[in-house]
What does this fold into?
Amino acid sequence: MPALSSRQRGTEAEQLAERWLRRQGLTTLARNWQCRHGELDLVMHQGRTVVFVEVRQRASNAFGGAVASVTRAKQRRLGMAASAFLASRPALAERDCRFDVLAINGHGRTAEMQWIQNAFLGEH
It folds into this structure.
């Protein structure tokens, strides 16, 4: 069986993350939402809170694992993309918002999910 491309692995990780978060009680608003600032992997809501979820997968925890890969520059781009998302949906703009990271370390059945709520502030 041929190896998956990085895009295919990313899509698979995002689908796994979405299913896992739905089991935690979140509801999906958007997947892979794009604008000129970048892409939001998942936009979900939990109660009345809009949750912007960055999904990161790494084969191992070496070099800090998946969580360490969300750099300050990436956080700024996510903040700008989230602002654009909210501007395109005024009804959501008044709700509380947060930025979560769902880190998937490993692959398949041995993958560990690490959900970090309020992982960073959406400043830009």
Observations:
- The mean pLDDT is 87.
- The two ends are 43 Å apart (CA to CA).
- Strands lie at 27-35, 38-46, 49-58, 97-105, 112-120.
